[in-house]
Description:
By secondary structure, this protein is of the alpha/beta class. It has a single domain, classed as Rossmann fold (3-Layer(aba) Sandwich). 31% of the residues lie in helices and 23% in strands. Strand 5, helix 5 (136-143) and strand 6 form a beta-alpha-beta unit. The N and C termini lie close together (11 Å). The structure holds guanosine-3'-monophosphate-5'-diphosphate.
Amino acid sequence: xxxxxxxxxxxxxxxxEVKLLILGLDxxxxxxxxxxxxxxxxxxAAATVGSNHEVYTYKNMxxxxxDIAGQSSHRQSWSxxxxxxxxxxxxxxxxxxxxxxxxxxxxxxxxxxxNLKDAxxxxxxxxxxxxxxxxxxxxxxxxxxTSLKDRDWQIFGASxxxxxxxxxxxxxxxxxxxx
Length: 179
Ligand code: G3D
């Protein structure tokens, strides 16, 4: 998966958006993360219908962040967004032990999609501010991340509410995109 100098140059300085999808089950914290990153605020938002799209320039990279609704009825249409995606930001509610298996299955499904074969995977183990949250390492085990072959992935503990961990994750992603 070689990236030439001219590709890096184009990614860094062209006005083209780097497409990043924010995915995860409903109530994982996707919309909260989108607006915490782009506005610095925790914005009270109604449940996402379809998607929210924000453009955010970070470290000279123009990121097109697309937060897609995660209810089961919407998950079937996730793949419609996959084309030309550079990275997936998977948001996990770290307190939601009951649905870890479901997220793992959804992750496997999306990672096997041809349109995402080169996409980076950033996982936010969100809601770390809550006392019953699984640690990032527990979430990683639950998702079986180490089984993902030929995939650049990284997991970060995060709290969208407190703003913790979000930019550490974004730094990793942008660093990888610039490689
Ligand atoms: P979604 O876009 O993935 O569906 P939302 O999820 O961003 O709408 O968040 C769902 C609920 O989780 C919201 O609470 C939101 O405030 C809360 N939430 C998001 N991130 C965190 C976090 O890091 N910690 C805690 N404690 N809560 C978080 P409401 O009450 O509005 O439904």
